[in-house]
Design brief:
The structure is a single chain. The chain is an all-alpha fold. It is built from ten helices and three strands, in the order E-H-H-E-H-H-H-E-H-H-H-H-H.
Length: 312
Amino acid sequence: MDTGNLSVVSEFVLLGLCQSWTMQVFLLPMFFMLYLIILFGNIAIILLIITDPHLHSPMYFLLANLSFVDMWLSSVTTPKMITDFVRENKTISFGGCMCQVLSVHFLGGDEMVLLVVMAYDRYVAICKPLHYSTIMNLQKCIGLVATSWTIAFVHALSQMVVIVQLPFCGPREIDSFFCDIPLVIKLACIDSYNLGILMNADSGVLTMTCFIVLLISYTYILLTVRQSSKAGTSRALSTCTAHITVVLLFFGPCIFIYVWPLSITWVDKFLAVFYSVITPLLNPAIYTLRNKEIKIALKRFRSYYIHPKGNI
């Protein structure tokens, strides 16, 4: 049977974070400010890395890519959530919903693989310092970033091909602030239990593979660091601590959504807010507050571009 003829739903209704109008009025300015901080924070890091020659290294090239991904990952969901706070009918078109699903898994998958690439960069820098400039050259970095985008696109597209072919002919309420695969599958006019498990397993395999590789990488790095000098150990630990913090903040919610789902609505919404808003917000702060070179670069930026007269 051609299931495409059953797809009569032209839009979905997003129930949002909460039903209380008072709470939505309270959340509106808060999330609006958070989104502005995400945008300006990540754009500032990208511009700083581009304009400061001292930051033209593989580590900061990868960090600029991470900021770019974080900025767009938040932009896929947060603006829609903010505008829905003041709308009575929180609807999203079928095409818009599918675009959200594709973008969230594309950008989320890219961030996972990119974090693995950043761990590899730290592994080479700490465990093979004499060969670092040879191994992590510009061509290698571009190739690794391109690989992360390719893996993420294949992952997202493989899921989208399945989702768009599902028949949607009845329920259209999504109890969240954006479209995600587990929620959309539940609305299909078929027995979607096994399909939901399969789709979660697809995302879970990517999530857990990246997470396990990261755990192994940082464990090996920390074991190597123990044999180094105190000065080298302190600097390596500072850098790795920032990376590990970001990994835990991003992978924690993803594991509970796709690998070990709790199926508790308010918990799912909290976790969704965490990886789509909180993590992109904290990444700039974590990397700037714990990174001495970024702090120095910020001082140089203020000196040359904001207060240029002081250098005459």
